[in-house]
Design brief:
alpha+beta, TATA-Binding Protein, 2 domains, 11-stranded antiparallel sheet, two-stranded parallel sheet, 33% helix
Length: 258
C-alpha cells in the first residue's frame, strides 16, 4: 500500500513555482546629481517629470530607478542573489561617475512568483466560498485573494494560473502551499484545446526566462501528494529562497564602500 502511494507521488506531475521578479531597494548615502548621471552615464534615461533617472544593466538584466536623495530601487532580477549583484553594480557605476557612494540599507522589497496548476479552476464558486477572495469580472479576469499569514496577495485565474506577490521567496512558496488545498476543491479538467494553448504559453515563457538568465534554480520539495480521486491532487515543487553567507549579510548592514 505504501509502495503504491509512493509510486503515485513519483508519477504525478509537479507544480513549479517560477520567480519572475525580485524588487530590492538600497541607499548610497550621498546626494546624486541626476543631470550629471543623465549626461555621463551609460544606458540611462532622465525622467524629469518624475524627478528620477532610470539605469539599465544587461547582466543581470535589471532596471534601477535613481533619486537625487540617494535612494535606489532595482527591478527585473529573478533571484535574490542576482538582485544583490545588480544593486552593487549600480552603486559602482555611480561611484565611477564621481559620487562618493556607500552601499547601505539593502533589502528585498517584493517578490513576484507564478505557477500553473495542472487543472482549471472554477473561480466563481471559489470566490463565493472564501471571504478573503474578491472577484470583479468587469474589472479583472482573476480572483484577488489576500493572505495574512503568510503575507501575500494572489491572483487566481480560471486557466489554473496563479500569480503571487509577497515580501520574500519563502513566503511565495508558503502562499502556494496554503492555497493549493483550497483551489483543488474547485478544479475542473481542461479541454484538449486549453491544454495545447497552455503548453504553447509555457514554452514561450520558458524561452523568455532562459534568454534572461533562466528560472530561479533552487531546491524543490513535494508539499502535497495523494490520490487524485481522494482530493489529494498533485504534488507541488516549491522554489526555495537564494541565500548567502552570514559575512555577506553583515557587510550589507555595515556602511561598506563599493
Amino acid at each position: 500500500m505504501v509502495e503504491a502511494a509512493s509510486q503515485n507521488c513519483v508519477d504525478e506531475p509537479e507544480v513549479d513555482i517560477v520567480i519572475n521578479n525580485v524588487v530590492c531597494s538600497f541607499n548610497v548615502r550621498c546626494h546624486l546629481n541626476l543631470r550629471q548621471i543623465a549626461l555621463h552615464g551609460c544606458n540611462v534615461e532622465y525622467r524629469r517629470e518624475n524627478g528620477m533617472v532610470t539605469m539599465k544593466l544587461r547582466r543581470p538584466y535589471t532596471t534601477a530607478s535613481i533619486w537625487s536623495s540617494g535612494k535606489i530601487t532595482c527591478t527585473g532580477a529573478t533571484t535574490v542573489e542576482q538582485s544583490k549583484i545588480a544593486a552593487r553594480r549600480y552603486a559602482r557605476s555611480l561611484q565611477k561617475l564621481g559620487f562618493k557612494t556607500r552601499f547601505t540599507n539593502f533589502r528585498i522589497v517584493n517578490v513576484l512568483g507564478t505557477c500553473s496548476m495542472p487543472f482549471s479552476i472554477k473561480i466563481t464558486p471559489f470566490s463565493e466560498r472564501y471571504r478573503e477572495a474578491e472577484y470583479e469580472p468587469e474589472l479583472h479576469p482573476g480572483v484577488t485573494y489576500k493572505m495574512k499569514k503568510p503575507k501575500a496577495t494572489l491572483k487566481i485565474f480560471a486557466t489554473g494560473s496563479i500569480t503571487v506577490t509577497a515580501p520574500s521567496v519563502t513566503e511565495v512558496q508558503e502562499a502556494i502551499e496554503a492555497i493549493y488545498p483550497r483551489v483543488v476543491e474547485f478544479r475542473k479538467e481542461r479541454t484538449q484545446e486549453e491544454e495545447q494553448a497552455l503548453r504553447q504559453k509555457h514554452l514561450m515563457a520558458s524561452a523568455a526566462a532562459a534568454s534572461r538568465g533562466g528560472v530561479s534554480a533552487a531546491k524543490k520539495r513535494k508539499v502535497m501528494c495523494g490520490d487524485q480521486g481522494a482530493g489529494g491532487g498533485y504534488p507541488v515543487a516549491a522554489v526555495g529562497a537564494a541565500t548567502w553567507d552570514d559575512d555577506d549579510e553583515a557587510s550589507l548592514d555595515s556602511s561598506e564602500e563599493c
